[in-house]
Amino acid sequence: MIIGIDGNEANVERKVGIGEYAFELLLKFKEFSISNSEFSKVVFRIYLKNPPRPEMPQESENWKYIIVGPKKLWTQIGLPLYLFTHFPRPDIFFTPTHYGPRWSPVPTVISVMDLSYIHFPELFAKKDLYQLKNWTSYSVKNASKIFTISQASKDDIIKEYRIDSKKIIVTYPGIKENMEEKISNIKELEEKFGIKGNYILFVGTLQPRKNIERLIEAFSLIVKGDSGQARMTNGLQLVVVGKKGWLYEPILEAPKKFGVEESVKFLNFVEDKDLPSLYKNALCYVLPSLYEGFGLPVVEAMKYGCPVVTSNVSSLPEAGGDAALYFDPLDTQDIAEKIEKVIESPKLREEMVKKGYNHIKMFSWKKAAKETLDVLQQIAKQTKN
Fold first, then answer.
1. Considering all CA atoms of the chain, what is the largest pairwise distance in Å, rounded to the nearest integer?
2. Whose C-alpha in 112, 113, 275, 367 is 20 to 30 A from the C-alpha of 261?
3. Where are the beta strands (DSSP E) in 50-119?
4. What is the pLDDT of residue 385?
5. Which phi and psi angles does 253 have, rounded to 5°?
6. Residue 295 zone, left/alpha/beta (φ > 0; ψ -120 to 50; rest)
7. Quick one: DSSP state of residue 76?
8. How far apart are CA 299 and CA 88, in angstroms?
9. pLDDT interval class at 230 (50, 70, 90)
């Protein structure tokens, strides 16, 4: 059996979101091809626009990279032409993105993380929005199966595209296993990042959907108190970790707007090796998103013993379970009150950490990869028959 895979999202330097999803699945697929007799006879062909990066799984007899051009309109022209003109063809083609090949001589399976472009179209450039809407619609209708990462996203896909629920499969994402801690204490955090004392942590891309402006406003209510006079409780800081996305300028201006510019620290992109220490030393992790396909940092924070306070919308209650504390993301007072409740109670934080350790047991990249491969094999076998 030959399984073809679009590996482009995994083949980038900084892997976040869908890039992380694609990369982790490829790592597990490669492991299975070596250690699992069930998949030892499967040949994996990874199709790319560019040569594989060093961290991508190494080529072997049953793991091959195929560079396909042209890069422009790759899924619309380059990839379909290659699949039609080269033999033997894959028995099934899987793309861990919204876009399957425009025309395909073999069954295709796609992944749709979320429908943020439907819920918040104003946050996307016109060109990107047109592509997301039209290419995703085409791919969804023509795919044999669709993977998504939460029941909330599945419900969204069913409602938007009016397709049978049986066509959509939820595979929860896992938690990174290769995040080796390189910083051991708060002193080292101060030396590397300038973080001093107690802090609240946010990890995610700087973009409007993450609702960071309201988080900063809520933080200002906490440190100023009811009187509006700055009291900067115990030097409390808000540490914002994440690369700049789109429309990020108002986020960077928000600390000055709300009078807390001395207490908000932006760290931009942080290497995986430093994230465990940032989670472990934080009073809590806060994700105030207006919408998430899953919210992977929620379970990532729990893995490292960090209490989670997050929005009560979309998939986030699914990601956090009974281990997180929830707020209305449109209500800055509610955000502030829930954060204060956590940071002022060591007992509550201890209880949340214990619940978090138990909750994350259900999230595993190995499990997600196995469920994905089982579906791909099943479709390929049905097609052959």
1. 73
2. 275
3. 63-67, 92-95, 108-111
4. 62
5. -85, -15
6. left
7. I
8. 41
9. very low
Q: What is the pTM of this model?
A: 0.89
- Going by the DSSP 8-state scheme, the letter that residue 6 receives in this structure is E
346 burial via Cβ count (<10 Å: 0-12, 13-18, 19+):
exposed
Within 10 A of 3 (CB to CB), how many other CB atoms are there?
A: 23
Q: In the structure encoding, which two tokens stand for residue 306, read together?
A: 């960090």
Q: What is the C-alpha to C-alpha distance for residues 26 and 46, in angstroms, rounded to an integer?
A: 9
Instruction: Please give the radius of gyration of the chain, using alpha carbons only, rounded to the nearest integer.
Output: 22
The encoded tokens of residue 345 equal 């109670």
242's torsion region: left (phi>0), alpha (psi -120 to 50) or beta?
left
Three-state DSSP class for residue 283: coil
Nearest to 273 by CA among 199, 369, 206, 188: 188
Cα separation, 47 vs 274, in Å, equals 31
Determine the length of the chain. Answer: 385
φ/ψ of residue 284, rounded to 5: -165, 160
Report the alpha-carbon distance of residue 237 to residue 132 in Å, rounded: 37
Q: Angle at CA 366, nearest 5°, toward 3 and 151?
A: 90
Q: Among residues 154, 153, 118, which one has the least CA distance to residue 136?
A: 118
Give me the pLDDT at residue 342, please: 97
Flag the least confident range among 68-72, 89-93, 122-126, 171-175.
122-126
How many Cα atoms are found within 13 Å in the side-chain-facing hemisphere of 225? 7
Q: What is the DSSP letter of 74?
A: I
Long-range contact set of residues 155-163: C-beta below 8 Å, sequence gap at least 24:
156/114, 156/115, 156/118, 157/112, 157/115, 160/115, 160/118, 161/137
In the numeric block, the tokens 């990890």 are attached to 203
Q: Is the confidence at residue 35, as pLDDT, over 90?
A: no
Cα-flanking dihedrals φ and ψ of residue 64, to 5°?
Answer: -125, 145
Distance (Å, rounded) from C-alpha 106 to C-alpha 87?
12
